Amino acid sequence: MALSGIQIFKMMPKKNCGECGVPTCLAFAMNLAAGKAELSACPYVSEEAKTALASASAPPIRTVEIGTGEAAVKTGGETVLYRHEKTFNNPTALGCLISVTESDESVDTKLKAFKELRYERVGLTLKPEIVAVKDGGDPGRFAAIAKKASAAGAAVMLMSDNSAAFKAALAEIGKNKPLLYAATDANADEMSALAKEFECPLTVKAEKVGDVARLSAKLIEKGHKDLVLDSGARQLASLLRDNVMIRRLALEKLYRPLGFPTVVFPCEIADNPVDEAIVAGTFISKYGGIAILSDLRGEVLFPLLLQRLNIFTDPQRPMTTEQGIYPINNPGEDSPVLITSNFSLTYFIVSGEVESSRVPSWLLVLNTDGLSVLTAWAAGKFVADLIAPFVKKSGIEDKTKTRTIVIPGAAAVISGDLEEELKGWHVAIGPREGAHIPAYLRQNYLK
């Protein structure tokens, strides 16, 4: 039975050292109880407590890490069936398949796309994370492509049924913890030995969920902790059913053999990029841990990355932009100064409209705890006595001779107080709507 945060706290070292990533042992215990942390994050917990807490504190779906360093990607670690219940934790890892039978040109094109397809949004970099390398009977080339993929910054999945191919590839990138695909009834012992030797995560594949659970239980008994599951289904409806079944059994029944993330292959289900995107989108929602496409194309990848961002954003925490000064359109010392809140949607609307005006401008972003301008004003977070100290400390006075600050029209009520607080500055009232910003700037500030 799961322990409460207070029960777990009683077994903590109570050092409040912060080395686990949170400031107090009580906060860490609460995170353990909620499935948001792993016991291994505490360097001082006693062996006795580890034994008592190991099963009680572990998320029902284990977090599995593939790759190392900046290429590392985490999957699994989920604690709820529905996002609104709490949050989803580790976004579905997206990647592409490269086969040994492909030409050098094709391999290089896919790896180039992997490195270059990067998108900045709400202060985050959206990108693919994984490359699956599939053997085609040439262990040397298999190893060479795996090495190239790893060098490109990818977490790597090695796909083969040939132990010689695995050994050749692991000799090159074994230290980078690739995901081995896959252990089956026919080769479970051999794959288990390889995974243990190189300390790599291992995929379990069978034709039915029941068979996956049986094989997974066998590997758990052999000491494997980092597993990824493939039910073997290659029809959309069947695979969706299997993923939902695995998730429910892991969360609702705490069925340990199925308490691992899953991998899905849209590249093997659909025969064109659009249908692949539909399949991948289905399993970003329910409940793929890894999704492998046949290729990486911006027009397919970008919508999937946005869908993933929306689904795996904590619904209880607003998305925010870092407080600070944002130059837009190469502003200079005579450029206007605008201010807004750090709610990401507000920031991106305002910055986008300022950019489209083509007027060089400075945009100040005030930390309002992720609230929009009007809501922040109502909550006392976008008011004169907070804005004025921020402007003074931000360094904007060193960047521009302008001493006029444009506030959102929705917060016009603070203009008088702000002029009193912000000595030497004139407060101008801008438009209420973001769409009117370009015309306002061109009319008032375009030389």
Account of the protein in words:
- This protein is of the alpha/beta class and 447 residues long.
- The protein folds into three domains: 5-57, Orthogonal Bundle (3-methyladenine DNA Glycosylase II, Chain A, domain 3), CATH 1.10.15; 63-311, Dihydropteroate synthase-like (TIM Barrel, Alpha-Beta Barrel), CATH 3.20.20; 324-445, Rossmann fold, CATH 3.40.50.11600.
- The chain has 17 helices and 17 strands.
- An eight-stranded parallel β-sheet has the order 10-9-8-7-6-3-12-11. It has a five-stranded mixed β-sheet with strand order 13-15-14-16-17, sandwiched between helices.
- A hairpin with a 2-residue loop joins β4 and β5.
- α11 (273-285) runs parallel beside α12 (298-311) and α15 packs across α16 (415-421).
- The longest helix has 17 residues, at 236-252.
- The radius of gyration is 26 Å and the shape is globular.
How would the blueprint of this fold be written?
Blueprint (H helix, E strand, L loop, with lengths): L4 H5 L15 H9 L13 H11 L5 E4 L6 E4 L16 E7 L4 H13 L2 E3 L2 E3 L3 E5 L4 H13 L3 E5 L3 H11 L5 E5 L4 H11 L3 E4 L3 H13 L5 E4 L5 H17 L10 E2 L1 H4 L3 H13 L4 E4 L4 H14 L12 E5 L8 E5 L2 H14 L3 E6 L6 H6 L5 H11 L9 E4 L7 H7 L4 E4 L7 H9 L2
Parallel strand pairs: 3-6, 3-12, 6-7, 7-8, 8-9, 9-10, 11-12, 14-15, 14-16, 16-17
Antiparallel strand pairs: 1-2, 4-5, 13-15
Distance between the termini: 70 Å
Kindly report the spatial arrangement of strands forming the biggest sheet. 10-9-8-7-6-3-12-11
Q: What Rg, in angstroms, do the CA atoms define?
A: 26 Å
CATH superfamily of the largest domain: Dihydropteroate synthase-like
Under CATH at level 1, the class of the largest domain stands as: Alpha Beta
| Spans of at least 5 consecutive residues with low confidence | none
Number of domains: 3
Biggest β-sheet, characterized? 8 strands, parallel
Per DSSP E runs of 2 or more residues, the count of β-strands stands at 17
Can you count the helices? Answer: 17
Provide the CATH topology of the largest domain. Answer: TIM Barrel
